[in-house]
Amino acid sequence: MVETLLELVFILLAAGIATVAIAYFWGWYYAADTTQDETHYVFTRDGWRLAVHRYCPEKGLNGLPVILCHGLSANRYAFDLPGAPGLARYLRDRGWDVWVPELRGSGMSQSPGLCYSNIPYSWDFEDHWHEDLPAIIARVLERTRAHSLHWVGHSMGGMLILAELAARENPPIASAVAIASPVEFSNVKTKDIRLLLQLKPLINLMPVSLLGILVRLGIPLVPQLALGFFHAPNVEPEIARKMAALGLELLPSSKIWLNFARFVETERFTSEDGEPYLANLSSSQTPILRLGGVMDGLAPPDSLIPASEAKQPSGERNTLILGKTSGCVEDYGHVDLMVDLRAEDEVFPVILQWLTDHDPLMAQMRGS
Q1: pTM of structure
Q2: In Å, how far from its chain's centre is CA 297?
Q3: Residue 162 within any structural domain of the chain
Q4: Closest by Cα among 350, 343, 322 to 83
Q5: Is residue 26 part of a domain?
Q6: Where are the beta strands (DSSP E) in 142-295?
Q7: Is the pLDDT score of 208 beyond 90?
């Protein structure tokens, strides 16, 4: 009996070590540097150290600084994946001062260790919103001496700025772009979301989510088993594998994944006590552009506009769903909006035009 038990423990231990080794192998295999010109570090009010990467234009300077914020369990590679189009490089090359922060637990920001950590393993949506976001905005405004900036967020990165715009009367945000950012959760129960929800019991058992490790184990099959992250016909398989290996964090907080599970299950984008995050968004005068993908399994088109904006909003709003019906070569999914080989021709110019049209400094130059 004892021998059998020891054998079982040994098998489980060996399997665990092998799983982690394979996950790290794919990270090593695809390892590549991003192309930021500077990396700054900022501390949040609750003591986390965040990395903020700056992409400095070589010639001239167009308008206000631009923050590009990644989504849930992602990092800077969402905007600067080697071998794929990168929004950070695209905007820098066109004269914009671009800043790419990495939220707590991601990339070069402070993260918990695999076996030991002197920082909490758990953080949630409101930690990113109330702690990370103000620290990042303050640092960018301080270093650039600007009075306001543009915020472009992918997935959760867009949700964060929408929550901020709804909560604050006059935030220093000249314009916002929310890319594939679900906010109306009565419309997100796609087959991909239902499948991810099946992992909730496993996520509940541990302080960190194992989704990143599970995805790394399936790297060779990522293009086929996209789980809503990619629309397979619209992304090169090797780019999808590289994004899974570099752009998805291995040890994301379980707590924040459970936040999103609550959003889906309750069909409401609210705090734990039921307070709607976007109740006052229609009062915000900040111009907001929403971009989505026709085949996005995580943020379907019907999930991008909150019910709170049923009445006429105070500020300008525009929504564009990218796919064949809007003139694109192929329908877009969730992540391929950022890394598809055609993104530089079909997605990035839309964002560039929005920034140009809603930048007060450029408006002054046009008027002079």
Answers
A1: 0.92
A2: 15
A3: yes
A4: 343
A5: no
A6: 149-154, 173-179, 288-293
A7: no
pLDDT digits (tens, 9 = 90+) for 328-348: 999 999 999 999 999 999 999
What number is the average pLDDT over the span 95-107?
96
Residues 219-250 pLDDT 10s: 887 766 666 788 888 888 899 899 988 998 88
Q: Collapsing DSSP states into helix, strand and coil, what is residue 270?
A: strand
- pLDDT average, residue stretch 45-52: 95
Question: Is position 347 within any domain?
Answer: yes
**Which residues make Cβ contacts (< 8 Å) with residue 360, sequence separation at least 6?**
63, 64, 148, 174
- Residue 16 pLDDT exceeds 70: no
SS3 content of the chain, % helix, strand, coil (to 5): 45, 15, 45
Give the model confidence (pLDDT) of 28-45 as tens digits. 888 899 999 999 999 999
pLDDT in tens, 250-308: 878 888 888 988 898 888 999 999 999 999 999 999 999 999 999 998 899 999 998 87
Q: In what order do the strands lie in the sheet with 98-102?
A: 38-43, 49-55, 98-102, 66-69, 149-154, 173-179, 288-293, 317-322
CB atoms within 10 A of CB 361: 15
**β-bridge mates for residue 68, sequence order:** 152
9 lies in some domain: no
Amino acid at 363: A
The arithmetic mean of pLDDT across residues 357-366, rounded, is: 80
Residue 304 sits in a domain whose CATH number is 3.40.50.1820
Let me know: does 122 contact 255? Beta carbons within 8 Å: yes
Give the separation between CA 146 and CA 302, rounded to whole angstroms.
Answer: 35
Please give the Cα distance from 271 to 260 (Å, whole number): 11
Distance from CA of residue 22 to its chain's centroid?
25
**β-strand 173-179 against 98-102: which pairing, if any?**
unpaired
245, 216 Cβ separation under 8 angstroms? yes
> How many separate domains does the chain show?
1
Distance CA 232, CA 129 (A): 32
Total Cβ atoms within 10 A of residue 3? 7
Residues 186 and 266: their CA atoms lie apart, in Å, by 8
Residue type at position 163: A
Domain that holds residue 65: 32-367
